[in-house]
Amino acid sequence: MNQNEWLDVVDDHDRVIGRALREQIHAQNLRHRAVHILWFNSRGELYVQQRAPTKDTFPNCYDSSAAGHVAPGEDYDTAAQRELAEELGLTGLRPHRLFKIDACPETGHEFVWVYRLDGDHTPQPNPNEIQSARFWSLPELETALRNQPEQFAPSFIKVFDLYRCFR
Which of 49, 54, 149, 165 is most enclosed, with most CB atoms within 10 A? Predict the structure, then answer.
């Protein structure tokens, strides 16, 4: 996490209208861009990470397999591949697009493209980003979300709720 990170600011149609520092974007609830990747193994289990305690938003909360901001000038697909490499050490993989979420409070005012990755890859979680991670069965995850939603990042809850509509 870099508070001096510059990000594109976008309008309500996801068109770039400027740039601002990450800290300003979050403090002022400006619209910006992000990706979330849902990685499933061959048993249909979803890899869920627990965010590091040093994260500025939702530390220690459970989140998507990999997620992050789209860098200035970067497209969503490139950002998804970069986040897989940065957070999980998974390179050379091309997740496929599932659906897009419009910017809203639950996503932190981010337009989000949600991707799916399938396979039995070997992750190398980045300890600066991830406290812990493991595969969850979907029934186990649904029970945890229902019984302890406060343990999950709001953006993940939104992503997973919409994913359930698409599967």
Answer: 49
